Amino acid sequence: MRKKKRKEGDDPIHLTQAEAVRLMEMGKHCLASEQYVFPTDGAGIRIPIVSEDRRHEFVLDVCSKRLNLKKYTFGNRTKNIVTLVRVDLLEGGRHINPDHTEITGPHIHEYREGYGDKWARPLPDEFGPPDRVFDVFQHFMDFCRIVTKPTFSQSLFMDQL
Fold first, then answer.
1. Which of 3, 69, 90, 113 has a 20 to 30 Å separation from 130 between CA atoms?
2. Could you tell me the pTM of the whole model?
3. d(CA 70, CA 133)
4. pLDDT of amino acid 4
5. Phi and psi for 62 in degrees, rounded to 5?
6. Is 31 helix (H, G, I), strand (E, B) or coil?
7. CA-based nearest residue to 62, from 78, 47, 77
């Protein structure tokens, strides 16, 4: 019996590196007209995002941690479960890569074929100071090529982020 040749997008969990890069590089748009409240105190939101041609759906995740107001995770997923890129903002936190190298402090995960989002590197300087959470989030959306960004109403804590 012959194996069926895998076509792009057949497996919702696995992406080739070329597929992941293509998905990351395409322009994306938030079509929702609602305003979102930037989450604090352990809250999180999931915002639907689509490609310019509307053939691909993405999810923009924004999650805060309850005990540390400056600890956030931002993610961009496709197929609802495959993380293309994720930023973890945490002072003193650490991540161990598959090769056992240790990353401390804020870092970014990018999809790597065969590993998913298991690899990380320090957060690039262009994201700005990690204690300016909302500014880092804006740079994250630019990094993810989100052209039409979701709008956020000002929360009471927004000026502290």
1. 113
2. 0.85
3. 7
4. 41
5. -135, 115
6. coil
7. 47
CB 95 within 8 A of CB 117: no
**Cα(153)–Cα(156) distance, rounded to whole angstroms?**
10
Task: Give the distance from CA 111 to its chain's centroid.
Answer: 10
- Beginning with the edge strand found earlier in the chain, give each strand of the sheet holding 146-148 in spatial order: 120-122, 107-110, 82-89, 72-78, 57-64, 44-51, 28-29, 146-148
Structural domain boundaries, residue 108: 17-153
Mean pLDDT per 10-residue section of the chain, whose length is 161 residues: 42 81 96 90 91 95 75 90 93 88 95 94 94 93 97 66 55
Closest CA to 17 of 94, 108, 112: 112
In a domain, 47, yes or no: yes
Distance CA(12)–CA(65), nearest Å, equals 29
Residue 5 is which amino acid?
K
Whether residue 7 is contained in a domain is answered as: no
Q: How many domains does the chain have?
A: 1
CA Rg value for the chain? 16
> Do 146 and 49 meet the contact criterion of CB atoms below 8 Å apart?
yes
